[in-house]
Specification:
- It is built from 12 helices and 12 strands.
- It is an alpha+beta fold and 328 residues long.
- β2, α2 and β3 form a beta-alpha-beta unit.
- The protein is globular.
- The relative contact order is 0.12.
Length: 328
């Protein structure tokens, strides 16, 4: 049985207190909410904080509200189950409820949070193993080693960003609010991520993700499609989020396509989205957008399925996501 390493846990009741505790802990500290990512990582000795700061008792992190402008405010501590079931989300932002429902299993949805899924550690077949297995191959550069076993001659880590909510939030043009020692700052969801398997977040270690602000869909439509081996539980090996706005005649006036789980960060494909503008999502437009988007899908041998098949499926799932917009 894998066991957690020795650590201390504290339970702040305010954002300011949580940040202060994290600053005081320094490199030995870590925030936790649901723990569905951090605790398994600790058991595998991928992360070894000595001080765990549990933020579940901070009221603001559990709020869901729609402000007068029509923007949805999601507290980072909102569980995935609450996101899935909230009637305001299901009616106004159904793609969020759908994407959250694609994450793991109901048991883990009860524990996992919106913020936790957005800050999910990058994944890799060589990294996501037990300590003894990783030690046997001399570890990897993401933890304790100096070699990327996906690409041994590479100077960087290629672990994959495998969240379901991330590409959706980027496609919806959401913003995230971070609280740190110097106060709060708000950035676009896409700006939260680096194209690096190790330093994959722009968030400073002491900063706490407080909430996500999601604009009203208005007359726009959004969809999400996921590729994985099983119908539940598995992380995506490809996630496609699509968003499109329409005029009164049903023509696309603006669009976004975002690929998840094909690299170290979510990949927006503006060239593919541009192929949809001015039309009515005809078969030719959808096929062209799928072709352009799949060019960015350059999978490596660090997740499930074969490389070639995953590459082929990129175009298929982009097409399915866009067809879902047309059928809405």
């Amino acid at each position: 049985m894998l066991r957690l390493p020795p650590h201390q846990t504290s339970f702040p009741t305010s954002i300011a207190d949580a940040v202060a505790q994290r600053v005081g802990a320094g490199a030995a500290g870590a925030y936790v909410a649901g723990g569905t990512d951090l605790y398994p990582n600790m058991k595998r000795r991928q992360q070894e904080p000595k001080r765990v700061i549990d933020v579940r008792r901070i009221p603001e992190l559990g709020w869901i509200e729609v402000i007068p402008s029509g923007t949805l405010h999601l507290g980072a501590g909102v569980t995935l189950t609450r996101l899935i079931r909230d009637p305001r989300v299901r009616s106004g932002w159904p793609v969020l409820a759908y994407a959250a429902g694609e994450i793991s299993t109901p048991l883990l949805q009860n524990m996992g949070t919106v913020g936790g899924n957005l800050l999910l550690d990058t994944r890799c077949n060589y990294y996501d193993q037990g300590y003894e297995w990783r030690k046997a191959i001399n570890f990897c550069m993401k933890k304790d080693g100096d070699t990327c076993w996906v690409a041994p001659s590479s100077p960087r880590c290629w672990a994959v960003q495998s969240s379901d909510l991330v590409p959706v939030m980027v496609a919806l043009d959401a913003r995230v609010v971070l609280a740190g020692p110097d106060g709060e700052r708000t950035i676009p969801a896409g700006a939260l991520y680096h194209d690096d398997g190790m330093a994959f977040l722009t968030k400073q270690p002491e900063e706490l993700l407080v909430r996500v602000e999601v604009p009203s869909l208005g007359g726009a439509r959004a969809s999400y499609r996921k590729l994985r081996r099983r119908g539940a539980f598995d992380f995506p090996v490809l996630g496609v989020a699509a968003w499109a706005a329409f005029d009164g005649a049903g023509k696309v006036t603006d669009a976004r396509i975002v690929l998840g789980a094909v690299g170290c960060h979510p990949k927006s494909v503006p060239e593919a989205a541009a192929a949809l503008v001015g039309g009515t999502l005809t078969d030719d437009q959808v096929d062209e957008a799928a072709r352009l988007a799949s060019k960015l899908a350059k999978p490596l041998d660090n997740t499930d399925f074969t490389i070639g098949w995953r590459k082929e499926m990129a175009a298929v799932h982009v097409r399915r996501a866009l067809e879902a917009l047309r059928a809405t």
